[in-house]
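Lab meeting prep.
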Amino acid sequence: MAGLKQLLLVTLVLCAHQLISGYSFKNCIAEPYSRGTLFNCIRRKETNISAIIEDLPPSVVNLTITINPLRHIPSYSFVHLPNIQHLRIDHNHLRNISQSAFQYLHQLKSLNLSFNYISELSPDAFKDLHNLTFLSLTNNKLKQLPEKIFFSLINLNTLLIRQNLLTNFSGIAKSVSNLTNLKILNLCFNHLTSLRHSNVSLPKSLTKLYVCRNNLSTLGCEPSFLSFIKFLDLSYNSQLLATAFQGVDLRQIIYLHLRSTSVKVVEFLKVSNISASHVDFSGTGLNNESLLVDLCKLLKTRVKWIKNFNLGSNRIRNLTKLSLQNCPKIKGALDLSLNELKRISCLNFLNSHRDIKSFDAEHNHLTYLPTCKTRSVVYFQNLEELSYRYNRILSVNSYAFYHTPNIKQLKLNINTIAFLHRKALKGLKRLETLRLDNNLLTDLFNDTFEDNINLHILNLRNNRISVIFNGTFLKLSNLTTLDLGGNKITHFEHSGLDGLKSLSKFYLDGNNLKQIDPSLFRAFQQTLTALDLQSNQIAFFNEKTTCSPFVNLRKLSDLKLDGQRPHGLTVIPPNFFKGLHSLKSLYLTNNNIVLLPPNAFDDLTGLHFLTLDNCCVGAVNLQPGVFKNLRNVTKLIVENMGIQNFSKEVFGNLTKLHILQLNRNVMQQIQVNALESLPNLHYLDIRGIPLSCTCKNNLLQNWTLNNTNVQVVFLYTLSCEHDKKIKFYNFDTKVCYIDLGEYLFFCTAAVVFLFTVTPLLYVKLYWKMKYSYYVFCAWFREQWRKLREEEENCKYDAFISYNSSDEQWIMDQLVPNLEGNGSSFKLCLHHRDFELGRYIVDNIVSAVYSSRKTICVVSRNFLQSEWCSLEIQLASYRLFDEHRDVLVLVFLEPISERQLSSYHRMRKVMLKKTYLQWPGLDCTDPALAQDLFWNQLRRAMRTGSKLKTEENQQSEGCVTTESEETEHFETSDENYYLLP
């Protein structure tokens, strides 16, 4: 019955998940390209694991839940994720794990619970994990293990329980005794005092046992208890003595580590049956020559030769020819690292071990390497690897490696080498890898590397080289990797890089280069694939550039230009990347670019990865077409660029884009059509963008919730900019949609109501309505009369309507002729008489109705002004609807009938009334024509504003046609039509 309930619970959870639409997760990120199988849930603030993983799909295979404040894993936490194979829940605050926490995870292969605070485990905590092969409980608070806790883990291969508080080895042995596939058991950093056990044996499959850094003083185990172990680490058990191994079968051991114990190796070898060549003698107190001699004599009685002889961490200060003379032949490696050697005397102390292949003297006190081209020198023809890293070497003399002519790998890095003799590397014709990084070298010469013709990798990083002289690398025709990063290089001499015909990877980051010389790449322009120029002093201050420095690098696939000092690249010239058709990755971060020209990336047709984060200054408006040729880009990082616009015109051509990181920009809106133009987009990061929770983004909200192809990172935690408590995914968008159905219902109801009620009202209230109509007419006539009386006391004689571009004619001509020269008219001018702080529309209405006349000064500019259009409409309203003669048209320039065709209100006025036209300077007598113009305008302003009806005109005997009203004046060939 309980099983049925659990199965029902699984089904309900899976069904609930299937109802969720969209492709975003509250607390996890699906790794790009993983197709929903790999998820990371890192640095979340949730204390409940179900809140972190409840919305994950059943397709999850790899799940990482780290650095979270989780304290408890309840039962059936992963029941909706039955396909998980790899699960990490490390670096959290876990204290308790429920008995059925991992129920139904039948596919799980690896489980990492390290770096938590687990102090106790239920016996059935892992009972359903039949396919588990890896389990880590490292760095917890476990004091003991339940006897049968691992019994169901029949396929377990690796078990790590290091850094806990375990004290009972017998309990551990019982818990793993049935694990027939267990190969690795790590119990280091616990509190074990012995390997005692009671009637139990370790699995025969176990080959590697780590019990380092415990409190072992004895082994205390049965003789055959370790008979299957091949790798045994007992190091850093300071109380362990040689007598502890007496009677214990160690014949199968191929590596025994006894560093920092109290075991005396000579005594140990006498009481133990282990093969002497399988013991690591590092850290066993062999700090003087007599102890070494005794050890060698004993070893020689056991074996004829030894493959690897590790004597590290023994505080050895000096070695002579006698020190290792009695040792078995060393045919593999000799490790003397972490000692106190001050000199190695051309390895003469290895006179009897000339077949050695590798020599390691790292972490010693060597201060110099002497000349080894002498008669007494011993030659090591088979030596291939030589390491002097982490010493205090200040100088390397000539022929320092003459005694090791066949070495292929030489490590001199992380020293203080300030002097490297020109002939220090002489004779090393088979050298393939040379490490000289992290030293104090200042100069390289044309014969420094002349013998190293087979060199493939040369690392000179973090020295103090400032100039590369001619011929320095002339003989290195096989060199494929050259690292000159972290130096002080300001320039290369003309032939400084000649000879590098095979160079593929070139690192120049962290130098002081101020420009990129195209001739720099002349020798290897056909082979170079990676070029690192980041953190130099390259900058451009304008768009002008003669040619691209990369134009001939046809095979370059990786280019780094980020972080130019001190102020970045500043400008990218239009053709800067010309010719880089094979480029796959481009890095331009932290460059303070103020201008990205629209053709900057036109030649990068093969680009797959582009990062521009923190590359620009302030807010950036990316120009349309800037990414138009980047159709092969699959990952674009444009974080913190200050981008203001995300539009289809800018990003629409990125048709193969999979990953887009837009976070920490300043756009308030993201156009959905721009996102829809990216058909292959699967990962979108918009964290830190101040998206407005308004109707501008209602389509974006809908898109993020219903798009099943694009993962929007942490969509459910994105907040609205105006209120952090409101989430973007669920802000109210109802106001953004018009409910047409509701509006149509009310309109239809109103029409039906009117058609129903109107006939009833007509029948019942006909006479009352008619009476009310006449009363209203009487009241309206009274109000009209009062308005006419008020007009007689108008504040202005005329309101001048004009465009500001005609203001000079108004001030120079109109105002002096109407307000001056004895005319005494009072004009209303908007720049002079409008009330400050009042709405413009209110000022216009007041001016029109406070003036007896409105004079419209018409020009082409006037016709294009919205305010002028409003003024003439108000004046024409008074003309037509109030029958008041208040409008005067003055044309400053000839305007054709076609140009007036769209201004029907003005054409209607021109058909009803005549108008004035200002005479130009090209007429026969301009002065006479202008005097006549002003007389007619004054006459028009003095006429009453009340239009006479046809009957009134007939009674006065002055009825005329429109053509008779118009007075026609001729001056030369100009016609002026004036108002009577």
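Slide two material, second protein:
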Amino acid sequence: MTVLKTSLRNFVAHKGRMVLSAVAVLLSVAFVCGTLVFTDTMNTTFDKLFASTASDVTVSAKTDENAQQTGKAPTIPEATAARLEKLDGVEKAQADVFDERVTLVDDQGNNLSPDTGAPTIAGDWGAEEDSVMELVSGHAPRGPTEVIVDADTADRKKLEIGDAVKVISFRGTTEAEITGIAKFTATNPGAALVFFDRPTAQEKLLGSTDQVSQVLLTAADGVTDEQLKKDVIAELGGGFEVKTKDEAADSAADEVGGFLDFMKYALLGFAGISVLVGIFLIVNTFSMLVAQRTREIGLMRAIGASRKQVNRSVLTEALLLGLVGSLLGIGAGIGIAIALMELMGLVGMNLDTSDLTVKATTPLIGLVLGVVVTVVAAYLPARRAGKVSPMAALRDAGTPADGRAGRVRAVVGLVLTAIGGAGLVLAARADEAGEGAQFLSLGIVFSLIGFVVIGPLLAGVVVRAISVVVLRLFGPVGRMAERNALRNPRRTGATAAALMIGLALVAGLSVVGSSMVASAEEQLDKSVGADFIVGSDTGQLITPEAEQAVKDTPGLAHVTDYKVVSVELSTPDGKKTETGLAAADPTYAEDLRVETVAGELSAAYGEDALSVPEDFAKDHGIGLGDTVTADFVGGKPAELEVAAITTQDTSVDQGAMYVNIATVERYLPEGKMPANMIMFGKAEEGKADQAYTALKDSLKDYPQYKVRDQADYKETLRDQIGQLLNMVYGLLALAIIVAVLGVVNTLALSVVERTREIGLLRAIGLSRRQLRRMIRLESVVIALFGAGLGLGLGMAWGASTQQLLALEGLGVLDIPWPTIITVFFGSALVGLIAALVPAFRAGRMNVLNAIATE
């Protein structure tokens, strides 16, 4: 009880000093809890949607994941519904029509489909839709030129009753007028929906009025979904896919589950970084508090307090700090989740706060995380406090073992750094990506830990070097700031380490991103001979109408089709491999200059010929002139001669196997031919600008496809990588904010620790302005020290990663010096901002009171 009272008294007495540490705990816990609440809410939203739209049993066409990508929606005979309605155990059989491969545009050609990756779904307005959606205005479609759109799309795109729209599918383009707007009774997580009447939907989406997409069955009373499924399979036999309500909902959830899991663990990863940075802040806080209470601890020991009691007193303070920070963090986490939901709403994914999901485990995880992290971080300072002898504490002698501990720390840090450096070197020199990735992970972890451990040793060297350039310009004030930063190298090292972690990741990712862009641009210049590339940013296949529009464009010397054909290859070593062949026109050999190690790529576009990549040839013992059997999915087998073996030393189409489209057409029926994934164009001599303009004009009615020349393509790469990096930097900002709080806390506690010294300095003539400048300069040099370590370490990580990625064709190392330099000098600004409050408080000290402080 005495220990608890002492801890409470100290906690309250130092509440001002604990605030920033509590904020670090709060932010870390809030990020973790916010991530969990946000992803759980998304799961709840999708689960409710899938559960509300799934029937007891769903019957659809059996699909093969290796089936040819024709772009057309799979169908089953409409008569299946009538047949199943007569089956015992079926209360109702409802045929349904839909296609998820459509694009919605207005009459001006503007894309109305979501730009978030969510699908646009066209279908028929029937009993099934009417049960999950509510018609809020207008009326249902009454003919081939009338449609309903969902309310979210109408709100987002400012659509009204009477507006003209076009629905583009692989069956053609349908012009219609909006006659109704419908709203989901459950939350719509971002898809755009458009509905025709049944006959129009069948004809325009499926190509036949006697076909449907699926049949939705309602089980009669007393019949389970599983039993009904068995009866349906017995009735229909093969060729159909039959799922219960739970299976259909699980299947739909699996399609989005990978994305949700990636988002969840990515956000938790960044939360973990902020937790790690927060640990340094807490260690520093308690180390300084223990140091400032050395005499107090000595008195406690002198009157009978044991080491365990002193240790327990410090840990109890940490426990209180962890509890307060965690509880506040849990509440803030819910706020972060709601903010993320609002942010997703701005980009088109509608998440309703009524679905906000806070599982019982989420607050528990936040509470345990905050408390454990705080107590663990405070353990070393607590242990150090307990080891101080009463007499040493009373005379402020400190811990006798400090010097020896510093030497041991330096040796351990050097060893860990050496191991990390060796790992990075081995990763850069690895011949296989898997082996290199293991060395890279080892190198990053050990070099980071090594730099953290060796930080105090580096402080003496790096801070002096920075001071020569920065602080010496400010005369005696600058030299005092330098001595203050070097007074306690362990404290300076720990404070800088918190900033170092975030900036190391920023620098490493910047190097990797910049190198990826530079490598891709080099490959484009080196390999791509086509003037124009036509394709979709969302992976949509090119419709026959759009394909014809490209081919009809004036000013093009040639147009190249590019498809991916699913096959099973039987190689001379007796093995079978399911893969995709890159089927293209012979002009593709001009559009993509692929280097070969044997043969010529143009030969692969001969009759019954193909090319294989170098690694595939080695793995299966294939040589030039050998024959492989290609069993085309949905077609006939073919004997193809290996006419070229391509190099792996590229990032464009690496590993592709090329075959002539004409060859594929001999073995695949017309209805099974895949649609174009992408198309290439070559302008007539001297007509590049005119052809570029004409090609864009040809596709103005198909906004889902982009026309790019090589300059456009490079710009797109830079934008995509830049957007990804900006998102990562935004997430890393939390860790950097926590690190800045660490600098503020260190300076604030340092000012308290040096109260008497500051009073003496003021007494002998140091002005308030000079005092504040001294503290600001001390903060700047600590920030620059952390930035220098972080940026240097990050560039080493990035360079090693790039060398590893060179195995995949990304062979250009590009250091983004403008970013690196901006971040370094930006760190000085961070140091100035962090010092504002401590410097202000120091300047307001009463000189006499400060001198009288013991």
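Talking points for slide two:
The longest strand covers residues 556-570.
The first helix runs from residue 2 to 13.
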